[in-house]
Amino acid sequence: MSLCFWQGLSIYQSFHIRKYVKLAAVNISQEITVNIENRILALTRMAQRWEVGGGTSWEEWTADATNYVHDYSGYKVLGWVNSKYEVCWLVPESDPKEFELINLLLEEHRTISETTKKHQNPELTPTVILERGVKGFLIYVPLFVREKLKEQLSVSQSKSISQYQHQNAFDGFIVGVFQTQSLIDSILDEKIKREFAVEVFEGRNKIYRSSDIDFDSRIENRWSQEKEIKIGNVIWRLRIYPQPAFLRGEYSPFKNFVLSNGLITPALLTWAIYLMQSSQKYAKEVETKNRELANEVRERQKVEEELRDQNKALESAVVGISKLDVSGHYLKVNPAYADLLGYKAKELKGSIWQQTVHPEDREKANKAYERMLASEKAEIEVRAVRKDGSVFDKILVMVKAYDSEQRFSGHYGFMKDISQRREVERLKDEFISVVSHELRTPLTSIRGSLGLLAGGVLQTRPQQAQRMLQIAINNSDRLIRLINNILDIERIESGEVQMNKQICDVANLIHPAVEVMRDIAQKAGVTLSVNSVSARIWADPDRIIQVLTNLLSNAIKFSPSGSTVWLTAEVKEARISPQQQGNLNFSNSSTPYILFQVRDRGRGIPSNKLESIFGRFQQVDASDSRKKGGTGLGLAICRSIIQQHCGFIWAQSTENQGSTFYCQIPLSQEKEAATTTTTYSGESLALAKDNSSSSKKKSNTQQTSKVLIVEDDTDLAQVIISIFQRHGIETYHAKSGQEALEQSLALLPDLMILDLTLPLLSGFDVVEKLRQHKHLSNLPLVVYTAFDLSEKDQKRLKLGKTLLLTKARVTPEEFEQRAINLLKLVILEDKES
């Protein structure tokens, strides 16, 4: 009988221990789930603040992230990853190896990040290995910024400030990197750790085990309980089993006493009381724990409900945020709102909101307030007044606010300084005005002069007719310069122009720049003095020649006849200090560099315009565009090119004495330099170039030459045909790519002039098919296109001897000279072979 009662007591005692372990497993799984979801919710709120603010400054984000890392344990790092999946910010600040590790983890889980971006929901990654085998996981929270807000916050990032789009723009992720061991350790309380061994698995991989546990396989096999933890798409398996010390405390020695002494009845009564008390104790603990969990769930639901209510107001937020009562007095403002107005937050509290609006705009603001009362929300652009009396443009969004009982309690105010946007609008209008003038004025001159010629008015006055033609040519050149300059500066500053940098000798850059300006200097009666240096720089030769040509052109243009323009280059061992050059704050460095100088004896530049002349459409005198030519974009292009070469450009000038322009570019590693001085005048400046009269003489070889012109524009084709025909060269015309191939096979021309934009087959296709033909694979080629070709495109167009010329960038005279010289070279090589 005693044995039966002893066995019954043992079974009953085991049942209660197993029940307690099972309840503990449920509670621990809920604790882990709730805590991780809280961290996800915190990161989501952080992302919402990012989104409604149109982004966050580094200082604000760092302060915010530091608080998160401090308040929520388990973080290894918290970071921002931009839309290109590059880690930009990490808190706490980490060494470069940390950035490399996070980048590797991001790449490893690229699919998850893409899913997060697509569904716009936070995602948890499977377990990852951090440094030194530490296990952890990542939480991705996507960032999306409304295009309208993003455009207001950073106009320079938008190419059209007049068109608003209301869809969300992806702006990267907030990524939380957690260490699983430290995170779960912080979640479990000390009592749980003393009583139970806790393990967490992902699949078969053990990702957590509580420390300081006494492992006993018999206890684990008998008492362990498992519970599934599901967070998003990640599933963990929790296993717990009691510690020996806990079991010793739970096992009552009373059943052994009953068995040994036969005191069945008293023992049963005593044990029954003990079990009843234990059951009541367990029931109370479970009930208390369930109440705590229920309260926490209700609290979370309340917070989420409040967040949803606030989102209606935050949806139109800019930067400054304020809460006002029903009478329009400030209850609370955030630091950004106060900073915009030049106040401290406490100074604004209790004041009326209209005092921060410009007096002339208050009536308009009050009408917007009335619209908000009637339709929940109003948006208006007005002028704001700071504490110091200064005025700025702002956008103000007002949204009605309600209390928990849905009674009107005031409104939220959201404010953003839009002074920069207004300035950009002003610059845009100014740009359109200038370009309209610069386009319409020469077009009017061209139309007028050609109209007189076409009408036959000047048939009996050939000198005036010639003058009208010259006017049309000059204004056509002016239009070409304007269009080329606008395209150049936009493409360079946007990064679309690839600088084809290589090791260049400075002397080889100066020589062609001077040659280009030879005729202009001769016509102006200006002498060019060149001090050349043999030194190597890492640069795009075409772009540096463009800079030197532009500076020489300006110097010649504003120099009196009979004067001299100097172009010098010298090697320096340290950058020019502010004391040496006055108006630029260069840092001192021992890096050697080349210093170009272009000096003239012209009228000079006022000191207050030495910096502004490098802006777009800026000239010392507005009448220069008409008197001297030019668009006011040349120096802006020069500055953009020099900056792309990690250099500087600036000017010094004394009025009525002349100006000097400086260009500073770093040298390559070679430091040796040799200097030579050469003086060129308008008569002696020639390089090896054919005399214009001799170029017109027809040789027997040229008379038998055949040139195929592939151009779909009939008017331009006729111009090119005329150029070659006056040299006695046979010309043939193809209007399409297919026709070009057919005539090439029939004629076997000595030279092909090829446009790229053609019907049926493009110029690229024509070159590709010619390469496959035995007799045409080395056909000399002049590509004459309206496009600026990339290095990759240039390689695709290589056939035989190949010239790449851009329409409008080379003059008809230069096109003629280079094409004829190429044809002569081809014929000469054919004779020699």
Distance between the termini: 125 Å
What percentage of residues falls in helices of 4 or more residues?
40-55%
Beta percentage is 15-25%
Shape: elongated
Main sheet, how many strands, which sense, barrel? 6 strands, antiparallel
Could you report the average pLDDT, rounded to the nearest whole number? 78
Would you identify the regions where 5 or more consecutive residues have pLDDT less than 50? Answer: 148-166, 313-317, 577-589, 622-626, 670-703
Beta strand count: 28
How many separate helices? 28
Structural class: alpha+beta
**Radius of gyration, CA atoms, in whole angstroms:** 41 Å
Q: How are the elements arranged and paired?
A:
Blueprint: H1 2-52, H2 58-71, E1 75-81, E2 87-91, H3 96-108, H4 110-119, E3 123-124, E4 128-129, E5 135-146, H5 147-153, E6 168-179, H6 180-187, H7 190-195, E7 196-202, E8 205-209, H8 217-223, E9 225-231, E10 234-242, H9 244-250, H10 254-261, H11 264-314, E11 320-324, E12 330-333, H12 335-341, H13 345-348, H14 362-375, E13 377-385, E14 391-402, E15 408-417, H15 419-454, H16 462-493, E16 502-505, H17 506-516, H18 518-524, E17 527-534, E18 536-539, H19 541-557, E19 564-572, H20 578-581, E20 593-599, H21 624-627, H22 634-644, E21 648-654, E22 658-666, E23 674-680, H23 700-703, E24 706-710, H24 714-725, E25 730-734, H25 737-747, E26 751-754, H26 763-771, E27 781-785, H27 791-796, E28 802-806, H28 812-832
Helix pairs in contact: 1-10, 1-11, 10-11, 15-16, 16-22, 17-19, 19-22, 25-26
